[in-house]
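Fold it.
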Amino acid sequence: MSYCVNCGVELDATASACPLCHTPVVNPSAPVDTVSPRPFPTQKGEVPEVSKWELALLLSAMLASAALCCGILNLFLHPERAWSLYVIGAAVMLWVWFVPPLLMRGMHLCTRLVFDVVAVAIYVYLISVDLSGSAWFWHLALPVILLGGAAVLFLGLVLRGGKRSILSSITLVIGAVGFFLFGVELFLDWYLLGTWEPTWSLVVVTICVALIIPLVIVRRVPSLREEVRRRFHM
């Protein structure tokens, strides 16, 4: 059994140099075994990168085939109901979510979010077509989708880069959730009642404010902030 004279690592009989520090092996009493196979590969192997265009084409073909098959099946199975629109809308939404960002890795956050919101809006619109209820889409579903997109965009821009602390991030997320749910009830009241009568959203906003105030205090007081970091490993 041989050992490296420099770092002391155990050497295999086939090693001509230390695998750790690359010190040459010189042992006249035990020459290097050049016949036996080495215990580890000597050449680096690299897995070739998958072509983004090929992967995008594969995803597109899979989603298109699923949508096409369901559309054809709908012609023979319950043709009075456009149930295939659910599958077609989901396929379109998934395509918009995955294929453009795959082909454009440097896509800006705002651009990507616009694609995502449009995809969700198209999916919900196709559902409204099947349910013969485009009115609720334009007056309720679309405003809620746009409000959710605005909330996500705000969080994405503010929290981008990971420069904010965990406490600040949690505070912003809670505030965005409260704002979103407050807007949801606003649009619901306008659509169903024609007027605004806030009830449950005020409870949600009150809870969010009750959670935000202690977080802001902890964030502002250094001793409390350090204690929270130690206890919760932040």
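The two ends are 48 Å apart (CA to CA).
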